[in-house]
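Section 4.2 – Deliverable D4.2 (structural model, holo form)

The reporting period included a commitment to supply a predicted holo structure for the target in complex with coenzyme A. Inputs used:
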Amino acid sequence: MIDIIKADELLVSELASFSARFFDEKWSEACFLNEIKKLNSAVFCAFCENEIVGVACVENQFGDGYLHNIAVADDYRRQGIAHQLMDKCFEFLQTNGLNKMFLEVRMSNTNAVNLYKKCGFETICIRKGFYTNPSEDAYSMVLEMK
Ligand SMILES: CC(C)(COP(=O)(O)OP(=O)(O)OC[C@H]1O[C@@H](n2cnc3c(N)ncnc32)[C@H](O)[C@@H]1OP(=O)(O)O)[C@@H](O)C(=O)NCCC(=O)NCCS
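Output (structure tokens):
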């Protein structure tokens, strides 16, 4: 049974440990704390039996939604957890009156690109050299929420 909750300050240590294992770029405890404290941001956690198995970070950036990151633990993938986390992000943004969500994704990250397409995102453009370590172009994608 998966429960999805909006993270609070008590979870920053666990979130940083999760990000060290599953985020492309590790987020520190301070980074999570900063996002959790902002009124215009939300960090959603998927829990399975008291363990964080998925995380998504979303922000209202000057009137547009922006997905900073999403990841699911290896053993829990392909069970719809990322899709559930994305739905929570959409709900958060819509509650804040927004109807567009943007993101960037490595062009080689087929799993994530497929996830975003399944959620209804469309590619707007390719951002050359957007990523470092390793260097790679990004798809810039947008979803117009109904
Ligand atoms: C991308 C990621 C978050 C997907 O998480 P997930 O919980 O496995 O995704 P879901 O089970 O919700 O899958 C939803 C859809 O995404 C696509 N998808 C996810 N994993 C896929 C895979 N391995 N191969 C092909 N499509 C995949 C499919 O369309 C899937 O729908 P389907 O299962 O009905 O075919 C996960 O693979 C991950 O954590 N990757 C590492 C971190 C990362 O790359 N994050 C994105 C940063 S931009």
